[in-house]
Design brief:
single chain, mainly alpha
Length: 297
């Protein structure tokens, strides 16, 4: 029950991207205890956001086949208890980051709870633009990790956040196409529902997949990663773009599933190679990623 309320599989990605942001921010020396506190605070904040999200969407979740078995629609747990747990976890996340890591990561993680629960969630039944807001929420965790390690923002951190933001768009569009009837049943407004032929959805997937190619290469340009990462990101980006283009030509659930599979393969591989090949290719390149001075300590 707790794993469902906290969306443990989804929030595992939040924790991982936070950790990657931390590791690549200061590749020369890793403060492992600081990393542990950062991950703990982020995990608590992400769990809090998930609980508030499910509180607001409990009725709609009960109408959808993919979410009808969640604890709240099945009344396996009361709403007051879930609300209390969400508040406690949100406070625990803020306190852990604030007192053990820094005020910038704490502010980012807490603001993300508010954005996810009070902006993204209410927008889902109103406009398909909710996807962009949701993508912002997914882009924040690497910045939490980056500022936790470096104590400040830097161009490299924004590049990493940008990759996460853009990646979510073809990833979610593929998912929304496959489950378009289910989303309609729950009363959520997603682009595939407004685009019966799937052409605009597919064009969006192709465009955002293509953007991932130069955006990922910027990680090498700003001293976040080396040449091996540049080559790998190029190969992965071309593969992702190819699958999206195939969906544009043949807009079927099977093709959308291939894009979705490509997306969930692309990101773990990209992040793994980024951690292995983190650091600037030369001191001159590394200087481009000099931090924007805003001390979080």
């Amino acid at each position: 029950m707790l794993s469902a309320l906290t969306k443990i599989r989804l929030n595992a990605l939040v924790v991982v991207t936070t950790g990657v942001g931390f590791l690549v921010a200061v590749p020369s020396s890793t403060q492992w205890m600081l990393l542990l506190w950062t991950l703990a605070g982020t995990a608590a904040s992400a769990a809090s956001a998930s609980m508030f999200n499910q509180l607001i969407e409990s009725r709609r979740d009960g109408l959808m086949r993919r979410t009808e078995m969640r604890p709240l629609p099945r009344q396996h747990i009361g709403k007051p208890l879930v609300f209390g747990m969400g508040v406690v976890l949100g406070y625990a996340g803020w306190a852990t980051l604030m007192w053990s890591v820094g005020w910038i990561p704490a502010a980012l993680a807490t603001a993300n709870i508010v954005l996810y629960a009070l902006v993204y969630t209410p927008l889902k039944p109103l406009t398909s633009m909710n996807t962009l807001v949701g993508a912002v929420c997914g882009a924040v965790p690497p910045l939490v990790g980056w500022t936790a390690a470096a104590g400040s923002f830097a161009p490299g951190g924004w590049v990493l956040a940008g990759i996460l933001f853009v990646w979510q768009l073809p990833h979610f569009m593929a998912l929304a196409w496959m489950y378009r009837d289910d989303y309609a049943r729950g009363g959520f407004v997603m682009l595939p529902q407004l685009d019966p032929t799937g052409r605009i959805t597919a064009q969006t997937m192709v465009l955002t997949s293509l953007i991932l190619v130069p955006l990922s290469l910027m990680a090498t340009m700003y001293g976040v990663a080396g040449w091996w990462f540049a080559v790998a990101s190029l190969i992965l980006g071309v593969w992702m773009s190819r699958e999206s283009f195939c969906f544009l030509r043949e807009r079927t659930d099977a093709r959308a599933r291939r894009v979705f599979f490509a997306s969930i393969t692309y990101l773990p591989l990209l992040l793994f190679i980024l951690v292995l090949d983190r650091g600037a290719v030369s001191p001159e390149v590394g200087a481009r990623g000099a931090p924007i001075q805003l001390d979080s300590r």
